[in-house]
Amino acid sequence: MKKLLTGNEAIARGAYEAGIRYASAYPGTPSTEILENVATYKDNILAEWAPNEKVALESAIGASIAGARSLASMKHVGVNVAADALFTFAYTGVNGGMVLITADEPGQHSSQNEQDNRNYAKFAKIPMLEPSDSQESKDMVKTAIEISEEYDTPVLFRMTTRACHSKGIVECNDRQDVEIKDYEKNINKYMTVPAIARKLRVKVEKRMEKLLNFSNTTELNYFEWNDTKIGVIASGTAFRFAKEVFGDSVSYLKLGFTNPLPTEKIKEFGNKVDKIYIIEENDPYIEEQVKILGFDCYGKNLFPAYGEMTPDVIRKAVYGETKETLEYDKEKVVGRPPTLCAGCPHRGFFHQLGKRKNVMIAGDIGCYTLGFADPYNAMDFNICMGASISAGHGAQQVFNMKKTPDKRVVSVMGDSTFFHTGINSLIDVTYNKSNTVTVILDNRITGMTGHQENPGTGYTLQGMETPELDIEAFVKAAGIKNIVKIDPNDITAVKNALDWALSLDEASVIITRWPCVLKKFSKQDKEEFEDAFQSKYEVDDDTCIGCRACVRTGCPAISFDKKAKKSTIDLNQCVGCSVCSQVCPVKAIGKVEA
Ligand SMILES: Cc1ncc(C[n+]2csc(CCOP(=O)(O)OP(=O)(O)O)c2C)c(N)n1
Fold first, then answer.
1. Helix H segments across 152-221?
2. Which of 33, 235, 255, 399 could form a disulfide with 8 if both were Cys (CB 3.0 to 4.6 A apart)?
3. Do residues 143 and 87 lie in contact, with contact meaning Cβ atoms separated by under 8 Å?
């Protein structure tokens, strides 16, 4: 049976066919749809969202030790969060096969950094597979699980955005039904106290030697012989990009198994071709090995070490030219930077926070990161998920040290981010007697990555009802005494909450609670927000004085007619959050009459 699948859908199909029984992940572009698709195989695979990547990997590790084939998936930066577990699991090895999927982001389309996670395979000393298209994405999951069980090791499976999101025709097979293995207690394998771990450390080196032999013999690493003047060595989508540019005019060493790299195959290739191009995205991972083997090659001296290695990037580097594209009138194309949606509950809050002077605003990652942009300008920095509260705490301690008590830090964070790694940071705030203001922007969903359930929403990934964890209870348990819960669309409530929090010389938490406008309400939310969004708002032209206070809320439903000097609201976009009507100084914005 053939299907048209994205790489992420293909991985899910591969997990099904490979007899995987348990899968866990935390969402993050470009990996999110992997688990969303695995979750559709409800009869065969238990698929779960974990609160963060470390928990996801650890859960998959537990499932493997208990005997099931398992999978964890995450975006590249998620592996940083999970790395602690990964490095030691590399020592113990598996019972049921286990594959860790890392979805890297050359080009940083939706990420705060660009890191080459191939280095993790080398660093943790585990085998790595790199599919280049959807068919390989599906097939290699099975191969990864087989390698994992045969060599007793977790396997890193490296995807990139193009491999995750582009579609290809995939030949699908039946599921291989694999019994869950028996679990037997085995201290010498799984108890990584130093005396045992030292022995496991040696085992890891021996395993790498065997894997080197595998790398040199497996068909996952293959030659494509054409003219031998130029030889290209490439892995992942970079191989597809190279083929698009060079076609059959050069020879290739295509690498699908990339840790350890196949030294013998590289030597054979290097000795047969006149000139070697290493085409790889980001770090000189293959290039360094080729150079160690004594071959001169063109790598990062010719191709960039950052961004995507698209066909045009390769063409430009090799031939000094790019392919012609359609000409169009660039004046007519309007720039559309990302913006908070009309009716986004983060708007009212940032509209007010941006007005505060003498505050440092510690940001975090989510839709609310857009609070940094015009017209709010309400964020000073963001680092990684969970960092706003802890980095904010560190900054506040320094302001306090400098005896500038008026300089205050406000840390902002979404609900999913709070469950991800925010809780630990809040514990740090109380434990170390900080006086930061923390704002948890609870929009009842993991918004930025496309509405994934989280521990606060009352549902699991596979649609089961589950207890909705109470953010306020966590905040109290973390020792915070000053807590207020507000509707972020109520401008006065936001203003009062900020005044109150900034007047205290102790830590405080403001929880804003209002659902993301794009969210399909869950049962609980329907009851709580039943009356929300009942009416839309319009501008009365006669009363409007053209002051643009409503425009400065940054709502994309509002536009300003420069000639008439009046604002207008696009009723197709307006969802009735009412923020604009509250900021209008002359009450020109009112509910649309039914
Ligand atoms: C370690 C890590 N994992 C995942 C992501 C991807 N990611 C960015 S923001 C976000 C979720 C934000 O949800 P929430 O905190 O609820 O804020 P919202 O977008 O709903 O405002 C995720 C999963 C990331 N950047 N870093």
1. 161-165, 187-190, 194-217
2. 33
3. no
Q: What is the DSSP letter of 335?
A: P
Q: Go through the domains of the chain in sequence order and give each one's CATH number.
A: 2-215 (3.40.50.970), 221-319 (3.40.50.920), 346-528 (3.40.50.970), 537-591 (3.30.70.20)
CA of 53 to the centre of ligand 1 (A): 12
Q: Which of 365, 388, 441 to mutate to test the pocket of ligand 1 (most atoms within 8 A of CB)?
A: 365
Which pLDDT band holds residue 520 (cuts at 50, 70, 90)? low
Q: Would you say residue 594 has pLDDT above 70?
A: no
Q: Is the pLDDT of residue 538 over 80?
A: yes
- What is the tens place of the pLDDT at every residue in 101-111? 999 999 999 99
DSSP conformational letter for 281: S
CA of 448 to the centre of ligand 1 (A): 6
Residue 76, classified by CB atoms within 10 Å of its CB into exposed (0-12), middle (13-18) or buried (19+), is buried
pLDDT in tens, 364-380: 999 999 999 999 999 99
Written as one string, the DSSP assignment of 89-148 is HHHH--SS-EEEEEEE-TT-SS-S----THHHHHHHT--EE---SHHHHHHHHHHHHHHH
33 Cα to the center of ligand 1, angstroms = 14
pTM of the model: 0.96
